[in-house]
Amino acid sequence: MALPVSLRTSVIPQELELVACEQLVEIVPLVAMERTAFISGAYGPLRPPSKCKVPIWMAANLKMKKKCHIVPPEWLNVEYLQDRLTRETTEPQFSEMPFRFAEIAKVLLDVASDDFQNSDRLRSLLKDIREARQAKSREGLSKLDHSDLNLPNLCAIEINEIRPFFVRAMGVLTQLTKDPAGQQMTY
């Protein structure tokens, strides 16, 4: 969702991607490596061709050096995403997706598109899902009521996009519901 500069006080998408890179993903290593300790934890040992779970940042680094193949997460396939797109376009509520699906998918598809079947189709489906969810967000914000707000299954990047607008809107609603004496009015 494109916002004016004055409303962009949230975390930028690249920072959200950095946070998402702490999520674990399965890889198939192409090189052997002993267990290695990092600040975020110890990972390994890597023994080809056995699968191993490592953070996305490590998987991306190994992939760029051609030392592993990344195993796609169970939700990052055409059938699953097509089902979610259908739900997004036919049901009023947000469909359940991993909390950082957009960030994880972007990083993995940027680094390891050759490890995914139909990577172009995956990108297209992800874009369509994001657009459908953004449309729901905009529609929901137009019906904003300060007494009740329920947005289940909203993801990290979507929360980040609407946060500045939401904070300002709540401030305006609070000002509008005060009586002239400055006391909060109840309805």
TrEMBL record:
Cellular compartment(s): Nucleus
Domain GINS subunit: 75-173
GO CC terms, sorted: GINS complex
Gene3D superfamilies (UniProt xref): 1.20.58.1020, 3.40.5.50
Biological process per Gene Ontology, one example term: DNA replication
Keyword Nucleus appears in the UniProt entry: yes
Domain DNA replication complex GINS protein PSF2 N-terminal: 13-71
Subunit structure: Component of the GINS complex.
Family recorded in the similarity comment: Belongs to the GINS2/PSF2 family.
Protein name: DNA replication complex GINS protein PSF2
Species the sequence originates in: Cristinia sonorae
